[in-house]
């Protein structure tokens, strides 16, 4: 009716005669999501304005604890403790977009083999390997990155590290694939905790295909993975607590340098005050006089930390 007489009288008069609110006439339904858009940054009293991605990363860290099943309101309290000035509505929106709200269940097929003996006694390299993830704070970017380290228990040598903004099951599979090419993982016992990246069906299937045995620590028992936990404590004390990183790449270079130091120069008390590299090489030289000692000066692969070992004449496989 308004449209029919629109040119003959003002719209306000036509709406008044029809007892129709002017706002109802001009209303057009939106095509996007309902509600106000989330602001792109959030104030942190300790670090200033940070992006929403930084907030989500801190939420992931808070939720990554094994027993943590917090909803968005409790996570809001955690963020307040971290210095964030943020309300529960924005936290709900961020968690909803990142699929972090309660209700997501981690499902895994098949039984998990749990640790039978807390302490590992390894008789040779590549008998037991253990791995774990640590958070590394980058001050210049005001956010945490994830560091995955994998260690040979016999020599305490760090075989490989992955440093990224997030670590997924594909990263874990690729890491094992590289280690398998260099050393072989058939018959190796792999010890890890119950992180979602490690209990993933694809990771378990890959290790089974490679004939490696995977065992899981019991929940809330980091002492069952003490060797890699000890290394991460050393990393925290010698590197993270002493330096502030301006960006991801500076942190990555420092982590690579520390890995070279740890493997090749740092004397390990539990090994008899020799380095992990000396312990590793001593075993193979004893069993294979033609073994080529790996070059400790070779730089790491892009995206990882830790030196590249030179191949020996047995193609880097275990010597029995």
Structural class: alpha+beta
How many strands, which pairing sense, and closed or not: the largest β-sheet?
A: 6 strands, mixed
SSE pattern: HHEEHHEHEEEHEHHEHHHE
* Rg value: 27 Å
Number of strands: 9
- Second rung of CATH, namely the architecture of the largest domain: 2-Layer Sandwich
Poorly predicted tracts of residues: 295-320
User: Can you tell me the number of structural domains?
Assistant: 2
Strand order of the largest sheet: 8-7-4-5-6-9
Distance between the termini: 93 Å
Mean pLDDT: 81
CATH fold-level label of the largest domain: Nucleotidyltransferase, domain 5
CATH class of the largest domain: Alpha Beta
Q: What's the total helix number? A: 11
| Helix content class | 25-40%
**How large is the share of residues in beta strands?**
15-25%
Q: Which term fits the overall shape?
A: elongated
Which superfamily, in CATH terms, is the homologous superfamily of the largest domain?
Answer: Ribonuclease H-like superfamily/Ribonuclease H
Question: Could you explain how this protein is built, in words?
Answer:
The structure is a single chain. By secondary structure, this protein is α+β, with helices and mostly antiparallel strands. The protein folds into two domains: 41-97, no CATH class; 128-305, Nucleotidyltransferase, domain 5. It contains eleven helices and nine strands. It has helices spanning 11-17, 22-26, 52-63, 72-81, 88-97, 169-182, 196-199, 201-209, 226-240, 248-264, 276-287; strands at 41-44, 48-51, 84-85, 128-138, 143-152, 157-164, 189-192, 213-216, 304-305. A six-stranded mixed beta sheet has the order 8-7-4-5-6-9, with helices on both faces. Strands 2-1-3 form a three-stranded antiparallel beta sheet. Helix 4 crosses helix 5. The radius of gyration is 27 Å and the shape is elongated. Residues 295-320 have low confidence and may be disordered.
